[in-house]
Amino acid sequence: MTEVKVLPKQKQFLLTQSKYPGFIGGIGSGKTYAGCLKALLRCQPKQDGMILAPTYPMLRDVTQRTFFEIADRFNVRYTYHKSEERVEIGGALVLFRSTDTPERLRGPNLNWAYLDEAAQMIHKTWLIIIGRLRIGSPSAWITTTPAGYNWVYRQWVDSKDPAYEMIHAPTVDNTFLHPGYLADLKANYVGEFARQEIEGDFVAFEGLVYPNFRREMHVKDVEIKGGWTWCRSVDYGYTNPFVCLWGAIDEDGRLYVVDEHYRPKMLIREHAEAIKRRTGNYAFTVADHDAQDNAEMVACGVSTRNAQKDVLVGIQKVMARFEPAGDNRPRLFISSRCSNLLRELGMYRWSQTKEGRNDKEEPVKENDHAMDALRYMVMELDNKKVYVYG
Q1: 36 part of a folded domain
Q2: Alpha-carbon gap, residue 212 to 217, rounded angstroms
Q3: How many CB atoms are located within 10 Å of the residue 176 CB?
Q4: Beta-carbon count within 10 A of 159 CB
Q5: Same domain, 147 and 264
Q6: How confident is the model at residue 348 (pLDDT cuts 50, 70, 90)?
């Protein structure tokens, strides 16, 4: 392939030695071009790969089209088998697939994979794909515009895993764009949507139940002082995760959620033993007493109070604690150790009406297990006014 002119962030993405690089940026930042060029460079003998997009129209109209345009521009020889959606190129086989049915992606043995607009795919897709990387020294990469604090954020930002490298590129970085393109975007995109689509930032998506939660404000690791009060809350589950949260209340009544136990497919006695290993004097342990598991939890030595389960009232109380008080500090903080609680806070959203509007009466019943436990804790604390010191 002849010399290719690329942008600085594209060059960084192409040359990185990370196993799982991600080019994450605004629309028009050159993401798909970089992803397809990286795929073409990877086409070596016996290094089969796969290129994926969320839907077949997106694959055909954007990703695949870009791939072939680059190949034709630089006189790369290939044979395209349209009926099978595969290309023979450079001694390698490249498969083109949509991810609307992830289970259909099982089977091929791959050296590499490229996921375009990965934030629009479900996490299971990524897990299936990396399980197919079995040839040589494999690698997989993504390009995408963010879509809230979803699995892409967790893998490329929150995990701190050195195998995952994020290259961030706002739209303005693409100096090849027509001068009026960015001006038009800025004239029409505002607020959080502009931050996501132009800056390529991870922001809280529309319809979030707790839109006033801000990581920079509410995620805080503190040293618990001797006079603070301890409490716990429990949300039962087996197929869905069982959750226990540990909270500490300071002398001003602020709540710090300092740790979590978040496990599916374990027996109640196993959860009870894990909870009891963390000893201390607890002002309360609150749980869903309608759950059949509660009697067994009590029998295993973890006594609980009845949770107050009014969802909308509880949500309002949690939101109120996220708001800054008179000293400009909120009354609810969460430790960075509570990764699942933080993940759910970034994904817990309202259901939608048939007209597509947010229904502020009922949250979607997913990503809500730690949300329920948090609500139980705050409701118990605010309604009982439990402050014990010394």
Answers
A1: yes
A2: 10
A3: 10
A4: 12
A5: no
A6: confident
